[in-house]
Specification:
HIT family, subunit A, 3-stranded antiparallel sheet
Length: about 120
């Protein structure tokens, strides 16, 4: 997931400059290629939710990169229902007016170590 953040408010897709838009897609392309290979996937789904009404739960621009495998969903478009369900679950657990509780440092360090090897 690639993200651009601003202090004190929501950042929307249309807030990005042309250079930032190109940069985020080029980065997503590079990250996606590595994740697809790492997860032994055959395809990728890239998604953007822009604004709270679209299901976006955090106030910054980001792209979800989902490695896909044949048969992971019976109907390929079911992935969007799965994304919506996960977003609703997150909203119930996450109050955006209080401090967000992230994964532990150990969890993030482990994931970063694995993914760092993809880009060395």
């Amino acid at each position: 997931m690639i993200m651009l953040m601003a202090c004190g408010g929501w950042v929307f897709w249309f807030d990005l400059s042309s250079d930032e838009t190109c940069d985020i897609w080029l980065t997503a392309k590079e990250v996606g290629a590595q994740l697809e290979q790492y997860h032994k996937a055959s395809s990728l789904t890239f998604t953007i939710q822009d604004g709270p009404e679209s299901g976006q739960t955090v106030p910054h621009v980001h792209i979800h990169i989902l490695p896909r495998k044949k048969g992971d969903f019976e109907n390929n478009d079911e992935i969007y229902n799965a994304i919506d369900a996960k977003e609703k679950e997150m909203k119930e657990k996450l109050d955006l007016d209080i401090e967000r509780k992230d994964r532990s440092m150990e969890e993030m360090a482990h994931e970063a170590t694995e993914y760092r090897g993809l880009f060395s």
